[in-house]
Every structure is written in structure tokens, then in C-alpha cells.
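Recall the central idea of this unit: under ordinary conditions, the amino acid sequence of a chain determines the structure it adopts. In this exercise we apply that idea directly, starting from the sequence alone.
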Amino acid sequence: MGILVDKNTSVLIQGITGREASMVAGHMQDYGTDITAGVTPGKGGEVVAGVPVFDTVREASKDNEVDVSLIYVPPAFVLDAVRETLAAGIKKMVIITENIPQQDVVKILHLAGEADARIIGPNTVGLINPAARVKLGAIGGDNPDRCFVPGNVGVISRSGGMTAETSWMIKRAGRGVSTSVGIGGDPMIGSPPKDLLKLFEQDEETEAVVMFSEPGTHFERDVAEFLERGGFTKPLIVYVAGKFTEEMPQGTVFGHAGAIIEDESSKPSHKMERLKKAGASIAHDYDEILDYVSEL
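Accordingly, the structure predicted from this sequence is:
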């Protein structure tokens, strides 16, 4: 099964006529993803990669089944895209766009919460379910099978590139993934790790989860508290990148917008210690993921 998507998932792409979105649409279809419609205002009637394009989400979803909207619109228009998606009754979105104004992100997450909708991102590479042959976004590029093979290990990653790298490590260990999710590198995202662990806990196919973490945010503290409450009972393997950042001035931004050490609890060393106390297996070196996964 996996989480979030399955073989029956139908996808709408907002901004499908853009250069990146049109390329990704082809890769998604080649992998097996069912894209039922695309939306770009003013481009209704066009066809991209065999997918009909509509002017609005309401028009696109009127005669086409849509389970999830993949949002590839410019930063200034993401809020409107989310409003339009929710108005059409679509409750699942993957927001690829980065550099969205923070005040818009606050509104987006508030709207999603009111509508009981699920958002992955913003600033995400997407997600993939290898067994179902479904991928949303650029994850895996035009050759997903290189890194992503079917299996029983879930992956949660702040980094898009490390979503693939971590899944490849699992493949090297002789296992595969149920679902790999790039949650997004921004400090405010729709589905933090704890929320996804809830889904993986309920998924019978997933036997364990590997999490790739970074400096900044309190996501790992929330995960530790969740483990201590018994919310996730399967093996959790965690690698926290960026230990060198603790030697740099506090508040320095490293890579992703969310990778900012604001206090003691957002330092990699503190995260590792806290998660270890909560029962997670900590990989101090990235290659140790291989050892932990091999022992599952």
C-alpha cells in the first residue's frame, strides 16, 4: 500500500504548461502515474504530454477524477492555486514551488487545516510509491528505478536530493521503500515528520522508517515526544546532517530556509541525543543507515 498515493491515484497539475512542469509530467506518465488534467489560466484547450489543459481547476475536475493537485505555479500565485484547489473539493496537494512569501504560507496552512486537507511541501521534490508506480513531482527524475525499488521501508527527508540518496542506501542494503516523501526544506510545511509517522504507523506494508534530518526547526523534538507517547512503534532510523553547523554563528542559514540553528534544541547533536533517548536508532555517519537497515 504505502502512504498518500496508490495505483488508483489521479493527478491534476497546476502550471502544467511551464517548462519544468511539462517535462515532469512526461516523466511521471512514463513511470505510470495517471495525470487526468492540467491547469494554466488562459491556456485552456491546449494539450501537454497528452494531458488536456483547462483554464480553471473547477473546469478540470468537472469531468475528470482528481485525487491530488501538483502545484507548479510561480510563488506569488500559490495561495490562489491552493484556494482554487480547495474550492473544487480536492483535499490533497503537493506544492513544488519554493520562495513562497511567508505570509502566504501561513494562510495556505491555515486554509488547509480548516478544510482538513493534506499538503506536502512547499519547496518539495515530491513523493513516490514504487510498488504502485506513482510519483508526484521531479523525484527520481526520468529514471526512478535507479534509487527507488518496492519494499517495506518508509523514507522521510527534509532534502529533496537526499530523499533519493536515502532510498538508494535502502536499496543497497537489500531492501526497498514503501513510500519516499520529500517533506520540503522550508521552516513552515504542510506535513512535518510526525504527521507522516502517523500514516506510516497505520500502513501495514511499512515495517520501518528512515528519516533524513537537518539543523533547524523543532520537527525532531516533536518526533521524539511522539515516540515517547507510543505514537510510532516501528523501528525509526535517523540521520541528522550538518553537525559542522554548530561551530558557526547562531542564526546562520545553511542551504534550505529551514536549516537555521535558533536555539540549543535545533542543533544536530541535541536532536540526535533527544531522538536516541526516545528510542530511535541514530546513524552518526550516513553509511550507518546501511547497517541499521540490513539488521531489520
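Residues 1-122 form a domain with the Rossmann fold fold (CATH 3.40.50.720).
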